[in-house]
Amino acid sequence: MSSPISANLMDGWRSRLRQIWEQTRAAGRLLGPSARLLISIENHTYAYSVAASVILAFLPFILLLITVADALHAYPAIQVIYELVRQYLPAGQGQIIHDLSYLAHHHTHSAAAFSLLMLAISSTGVFLPLEVALNGIWGFRQNRSYLANQAVSLGLVAACGVLAYLSVIFATWGQEIIHAVIFTLAPAAWSGFAAGFYAVLSWIILRAMVIPASIAGFFLIYWLLPHGPVPAVQVFPAAFYTGLLAEIFQVIFRLLLPALDFQAVYASFALPVTLIFWGFASALLLLFGASLSARNIARMPAQLQLKFHGFPRFPFRRE
């Protein structure tokens, strides 16, 4: 016969399992419609289009950031940009950094102008299908004209460029400060420990600067790109969670990459295929967050709700 203690433990476990099951079912009912959106034919088409255009836009975008940093003589910032490429790209980091370094040192005015032109062309390829997809998610029937979409796309590229550059500058300043503090205070005998401690803090500072910029970028896309009235207070929580999910996705994608083994199937084409697949999955993640905002089910954590309770309702409304 089982003792009263073991019976109570079993009842407690059953109750806990039932509670977890009910919470899982509730989460499924809440997130299910947005998850089903990810397997629709239309959104797969949009995501593939976005992924291909991201590949075209990525190198010119990073190259322009390096050009701006070089023009402002912010040479440590250039190293931070390379470090971001190394940490965030899923594959081919060494090759791409080598190519960026070569292009940056051989960058003429005509090459800079061509990079800007390619960025303008490819940004349309990124934001045009995204606008159509977001309009469908929000239920807006009318899309912008091509020229209007081009203007909004260039504005978003400029805004994202500013966010990216500011995050690089702030990360550079933070790394320089902790480098000066650690290596000034640490005894010479602790140089190895100091170097390891600096590497950890440097990684944390980089993430602390990139994640807010990523959240702000998602917010601008969710708020400005749909061709209709979108309340800023409604899309910010979705942008917040999508920015955090993007960090988690980056780690998971790297862990899964060896199992995918694109090299065995595509050989020398493995790198572009990897980047396209990465861009495709990232675009679907963006659309998932957009669906959460359109359905108005994303909420800020309770600890942060007071801070965002008075989030201004911007007068700008897109009719």
Structure description:
The protein contains eleven helices and no strands. By secondary structure, the chain is mainly alpha-helical. The chain has one domain (40-308). The protein is globular and about 75 Å long. The protein starts with a helix and ends in an 11-residue tail after the last helix.
Summary keywords:
mainly alpha; disordered C terminus; 319 residues; globular
Order of helices and strands: HHHHHHHHHHH
The count of DSSP E runs of length 2 or more, i.e. the number of strands, is: 0
Report helical residue fraction. over 70%
Strand content: under 5%
Distance between the termini: 72 Å
What would a concise description of this structure say?
This protein is mainly α and 319 residues long.
List the helices and strands and how they pair.
Layout: H1 4-37, H2 41-71, H3 75-88, H4 93-105, H5 109-138, H6 146-185, H7 191-224, H8 232-260, H9 262-266, H10 270-294, H11 302-308
Helix pairs in contact: 1-10, 2-3, 2-4, 2-5, 2-10, 3-4, 3-6, 5-6, 5-10, 6-7, 7-8, 8-10
